[in-house]
Amino acid sequence: MKQLQANPKPCQVFDLICGSSTGGLIAILLGRFGLSCDDAIAVYQEIGTTMFDGEADNGKIWGHIIHGEQFSSSTLEKKLEELIEKYTGSKDTLFRPPADASDAAIHDQTRTFVTVVSKIGAAGTDAYRIRSYPTPPSEVEPSPYGHKWTIFEGARGTCAAPLYFSPLRILGGNSVYLFQDAGSSGFNNPAKIAVSEAEQVFGANATIALVSLGTGLKSLMGHWKDLKQARTVTDDQINSVVDQIENAEKTHKQNDKKRFSIFKKFERTRKNIQNSPELVRRIATQLLEVATDTETVHSQVHEQFKRRGQGTNYSR
């Protein structure tokens, strides 16, 4: 954005903005609310602190994960409602503005969507897209039929990672529908979905330029040689992490005896890992799966643009 001379907001540059999980939250901030990058970063950090009760910085987050405890969904929901009311005037604002009413959020002509999946759906089933614009004719909307999704429901659903939060509940007649983060079904990187959606919205012959932002494989894989090996977390690797934490503990104790909170953070994390190696192995393996999943999608999308002779139109 800084390379553009006028330094406009993303909603003034991009025709379509989408995201999965907290990337979906970012998409809402930039696309649906029309915030600047700086404002979106500030709001994201504020919500992140709320989502994890301030525990990401004091080592308690591992305790929650180790013991299978989810974070407070009600705390997250309250913060989302406050945010939506601040930028739209009502906590119940629809994700897709009514055609016969003005929209309080100024986002120019940018279209925004976030991804969710049904909690009871089969793994690998295509993610649902909660849109701020009319559904393309060939697309299927999530049940319940005819439900008008609010911004709150879209944000709450896309952020509902099973490891951290309970699923979003939507009532439809006598039925309850549950939705959660699409990343749990292999859609951590929505780049392919974005291309597919753009082709349906703007036409199959439209020239597409895609900017993909997100976590990925390379920064996490380190010295592992291939994906097969990377998907297996060994005892030696867990012990290596514990050793690194112990060394960090010793270093901080030697260098700064006053920073007691840092010592406790290291100690708590190390003990949690040592006491529950099987769960840690499962979580670590899951994180590696996420990393390889996002990188695989990146490679596929990159090749797709290259085959079209538009390799420079894709950037990650």
Would you kindly provide a brief summary of this structure?
The protein is of the alpha/beta class and 316 residues long. It has 11 helices and 7 strands. The chain has helices at residues 22-32, 37-51, 60-66, 73-88, 151-158, 191-202, 218-221, 227-230, 235-255, 260-275, 277-307, and strands at 16-19, 111-118, 128-131, 168-172, 175-181, 210-211, 314-315.
Structure description:
This protein is α/β, with parallel strands linked by helices. Helix content is 46%, strand content 10%. It has helices at 22-32, 37-51, 60-66, 73-88, 151-158, 191-202, 218-221, 227-230, 235-255, 260-275, 277-307, and strands at 16-19, 111-118, 128-131, 168-172, 175-181, 210-211, 314-315. Strands 1, 2, 3, 4 and 5 form a five-stranded mixed β-sheet that branches. A two-stranded parallel sheet has the order 6-7. A hairpin with a 2-residue loop joins strand 4 (168-172) and strand 5 (175-181). The longest helix is centred in the C-terminal third of the chain and has 31 residues, at 277-307. It is globular and about 65 Å long. The two termini are 14 Å apart. Mean pLDDT is 80; it is low at 220-225. Keywords: Hydrolase, Lipid degradation, Lipid metabolism, Transferase. Pfam families: Patatin. GO terms for molecular function: calcium-independent phospholipase A2 activity; transferase activity. This is Acyl transferase/acyl hydrolase/lysophospholipase. One of its GO terms (cellular component) is membrane.
